[in-house]
Amino acid sequence: MDNKPTGTTKRIELLDVYRGFAILGIFVVNIVIMNSTFLNQDEFAQQWTSPVDQLSERILQLFFYTKFFPIFSLLFGLGISMQALKWYEKNTLSFSFFARRMFILFLFGILHILLLWSGDVLHLYALLGLLTTVFIKRSNTLILSLSLLVLLFPFYDTIFEQLLTLLNFQPEVYLSDHTGASVNEVIRNGSYAEGVKLRILEYLSNIPMLFGFLAPVALSMFLLGLYLGKNRIHQNIEAFIERIKKPIILITVITNIYRVLFLFVFTKLDIYQMAIARTLFVKLMVLSDVVMGLFYLWLLGWLWQYTPWRKILSPLKYAGRMALTNYIMQSFIGLILFSSVGFSLYETMSPHQTFLTALLVFGFQVMGSKIWLRFFQYGPLEWIWRCFTYKKLLPNKKVA
Questions:
Q1: What b/e sequence results for 125-159 when a residue is b if at least 16 CB atoms lie within 10 Å of its CB, and e otherwise?
Q2: Domain span holding position 98
Q3: Closest Cα partner for 371 from 313, 314, 315?
Q4: In this predicted model, what pLDDT tens digit does every residue of 260-307 receive, in sequence order?
Q5: Domain for residue 204, yes or no?
Q6: Residue 276 is assigned to a structural domain of this protein
Q7: Phi, psi dihedral angles at 350 (to 5 degrees)
Q8: Cα 32 to Cα 349: distance, rounded to the nearest angstrom
Q9: What pLDDT, on the 0 to 100 scale, is given for residue 303?
Q10: 39 phi and psi, to 5 degrees?
Q11: CB-CB contact of 189 with 351 (8 Å)
Q12: Nearest to residue 64, comparing CAs of 114, 17, 104, 30?
């Protein structure tokens, strides 16, 4: 039996706050890449030597880079598991339904890459979503163990590199004819069609990063979100936040000590030049960043439950309820800001300018989301996703 659309249920506001927070952090990081692609990023960043730009770069390194992708991935796994559990308990969970739902998300991701920005993760999440019907029936111990094993394994990049060699796939050739200057020319002065072609080449050249680095983190966090969903953590978040208080703070302190040592000490050591040692050092840094992201979620939850900060954090829920729409909208705004179809500001913004721009844009997204949700139940892309999933035109406008 195919699934029927469920009516609007009482939302858990804190989860929407988490999603809004994740969308903010994702944009703060993404706008840096939109402003200067990986091909030219190191050289471009060297010119910004003012104290405010140096401070902005340190803030990004310490508090943003590699922290919000794990959060985004965990929340995706949690959200998918919460939906799947409802259908599983009603004996209406089917692979065909989830396959269709994830296929539509995959198409969103492909269109995102082609039309707006090459740094999409939706297509990756869609592939992970297909695992839901497999793992939702497995034991909690197995799911948590797999999550930890996937996260801790340090040699994905080496294995993936060997796999690409076997397949005779060479991602580095796709941008071999481009330099930082030629990319700058295409983005700032090229036609939209030239921009689409460049985005395809960028995506293909970044496949090792996507599947050798980001995909394992996403899979680990997806499984962790699935584990939390199966254990119904969302139904008693207050108790869970209090229960993990001491261990999460202790682990965060330890990993932050390592993060600081890595950034300022370890990379300068002779041992860091050894390939295996460098791989392990970097892996520990990634683990530390993931822990920091999870600490953010715990801290937000604690502030939400036990302090007056709830009023300050509450507006995040509007952006979180429209996370898909806002995620895609950020890329559209990036296209307008940086490319020839808009203001051609590519490689003109300093670190502190991109940081402030991200905060400003997100502030408008929060206000826009709040206004939209006064009149509609779902964001526009959330509604479209729903309609295609259920193969019917579903109501969206709120009834007075």
A1: bbbbbebbbebbeeeeeebbebbeebbeebebbee
A2: 13-231+315-390
A3: 315
A4: 999 889 999 999 999 899 999 999 999 999 999 999 999 999 999 999
A5: yes
A6: no
A7: -80, 170
A8: 9
A9: 97
A10: -60, -30
A11: no
A12: 30
